[in-house]
From TrEMBL:
Organism the protein comes from: Streptomyces flaveus
Family, as annotated: Belongs to the UPF0111 family.
PANTHER family (UniProt xref): UPF0111 PROTEIN YKAA
Official protein name in the record: Phosphate transport regulator
Domain of life: Bacteria
Length: 206
C-alpha cells in the first residue's frame, strides 16, 4: 500500500460538479418559465423549489466535508467561498421564479428572455468548468467568457429598466417587474463571483 505524506480529500471536486449540474437544472426551469401559463408556472416553481433544496443539501455537504477534512485540495476559505457563491446562484434563480408566481405576473417584459438565456449559458459554462478544478486546466476561457456574459447581462438589465420606466406600466407593476429583473441580474453577478473565485484558486495553485 502506498503511503501518501499529504493525502488530499478529492470528493470536493465531485460535490462542486454536482452543485453546478443542479444549477443547470435551475436554468432550464427558468427557460421553461418563459412559455408557461399560470398553472404551468406554479408547477415550475415547485420544481425549482426542489432544485433549490437540493442545492442547499449540496452546499451543506461541502461544508460538512470541509469541517471533517484534515487536508483539502485548495484553501479552505476558497472552498467555502466557491460553495457559497454556487448556492447564491440557485437562491436567486428560485427567488425569481417564486416572485413571478407570487406577483401573478401575466406577461414578462421583453428582455427577460435575454436575461435568462445569458444565465443558461453561464450555467453550462460553470458546469463544464467544475470538473477541471482537479487539474486546473482549461479554465482561463471559462472565467473570461463568464465575465463577458455578466457584462452583457448588465446591458440587458439597464435596457429592461429603461423599458419599465417608459410609462407603459403602472407604478405597482413596475415595482413587481423591477424586483424580478433585479433578482435575475443578481444571479448573473453570482455567476461572475463563482468565476472570479475559480480564477483566484487557479492563480494560487499555479
Amino acid at each position: 500500500m502506498r503511503f501518501r505524506l499529504t493525502p488530499r480529500e478529492t470528493s470536493f471536486y465531485d460535490m462542486f460538479a454536482a452543485s453546478a449540474d443542479n444549477i443547470v437544472t435551475g436554468s432550464k426551469l427558468l427557460m421553461e418559465l418563459l412559455g408557461a401559463d399560470a398553472p404551468g408556472r406554479a408547477e415550475i416553481a415547485e420544481r425549482m423549489r426542489a432544485a433549490e433544496h437540493a442545492g442547499d443539501d449540496a452546499t451543506h455537504a461541502i461544508f460538512h466535508q470541509l469541517n471533517s477534512s484534515f487536508i483539502t485540495p485548495f484553501d479552505r476559505e476558497d472552498i467555502y467561498k466557491l460553495a457559497s457563491c454556487l448556492d447564491d446562484i440557485m437562491d436567486f434563480m428560485e427567488e425569481a421564479v417564486d416572485l413571478v408566481v407570487l406577483y401573478n405576473v401575466e406577461e414578462l417584459p421583453k428582455g427577460v428572455d435575454q436575461q435568462i438565456e445569458v444565465l443558461a449559458r453561464a450555467a453550462e459554462l460553470t458546469a463544464e468548468a467544475m470538473p477541471n478544478l482537479r487539474t486546473m486546466d482549461n479554465l482561463t476561457e471559462y472565467w473570461i467568457e463568464v465575465n463577458r456574459l455578466e457584462n452583457q447581462a448588465d446591458q440587458i438589465h439597464r435596457k429592461l429598466l429603461a423599458h419599465l420606466f417608459n410609462g407603459k406600466y403602472d407604478a405597482i407593476e413596475v415595482l413587481k417587474l423591477k424586483q424580478i429583473v433585479d433578482v435575475l441580474e443578481e444571479a448573473a453577478d453570482a455567476f461572475e463571483h463563482v468565476a472570479n473565485t475559480v480564477e483566484t484558486i487557479a492563480v494560487k495553485e499555479s
